[in-house]
Design a protein that fits this description.
Blueprint lengths: L1 H17 L19 E5 L2 E6 L2 E2 L3 E9 L2 E9 L18 E6 L2 E6 L7 E5 L4 E5 L7 H10 L7 H7 L4 E6 L7 E8 L3 E8 L4 E8 L1
Antiparallel strand pairs: 1-2, 2-3, 4-5, 6-7, 8-9, 10-11, 11-12, 12-13
Helix pairs in contact: 2-3
């Protein structure tokens, strides 16, 4: 009888070993793909997404925070979705490019933002002027270019540009011995350099994006 009991126990143990063990894995959490929206910079170009799709051939106003303030900028996104953007020049984003949109000319800086006011294009060192609506101002542009020629009396250029944000005066390093001071005028998007004679007259050296 004891042998039968031992045999029964052995058979039961064998059956338990052969029964597969079922494991219950916890359900995996599936993350939804992030849908792109708003302004994005990708491979050096700017795009604007709505419900994950790039907008094309359209204007967009984008609000950004700068120095604790909310500021709005206008962008235009072309046929491939990329914003019209100037090349960065002199390490500055204040370079400018002119683009034609529906028969009208507008300016855009190296961040893709619509240009307003006065700029200098770093590639050709020429002045460009734009209205408050971003439209290219050919008349003011022409006047600025004439007034900014090297060696020209600087009074006309000063009048066109108005009061600078900052003015610096140093001893001159110019080759003309009659020029006693170098003058640096800083505006919102442009830096102008002048030479000053002892009698106060000034001549234009040049201008570049700041």
């Amino acid at each position: 009888m004891k042998k039968w009991k031992k045999l029964l126990i052995f058979v039961l143990c064998l059956m338990l070993v052969q029964v597969p063990v079922m494991t219950v894995s916890s359900p995996k959490t599936v993350q939804a793909a992030t849908v792109k929206k708003g302004l994005k910079k990708e491979k050096g170009k700017y795009y604007y997404y709505v419900n994950g799709k790039k907008v094309k051939n359209t204007w967009k106003t984008v609000k950004v925070k700068e120095k604790g303030k909310t500021v709005s900028y206008r962008y235009y996104f072309g046929k491939n979705g990329a914003a019209y953007t100037a090349a960065k020049s002199f390490g500055s984003y204040n370079n400018v490019v002119v683009k034609t949109i529906k028969g009208k000319k507008y300016g855009f800086n190296a961040r893709g933002r619509m240009a307003k006011g006065v700029y200098v294009n770093g590639s050709n060192m020429k002045f460009y002027a734009f209205t408050k609506r971003g439209l290219y101002d050919a008349k003011t542009t022409s006047a600025l270019r004439k007034a900014s020629k090297e060696g020209t009396d600087a009074s006309k250029l000063r009048k066109l540009l108005g009061k600078p944000l900052k003015e610096e005066v140093t001893d001159s390093c110019y080759t003309d011995p009659l020029v006693v001071n170098d003058v640096i005028l800083t505006y919102s998007y442009v830096t102008v350099t002048l030479g000053r004679y002892a009698d106060g007259r000034e001549i234009v050296y040049g201008a570049y994006p700041n």
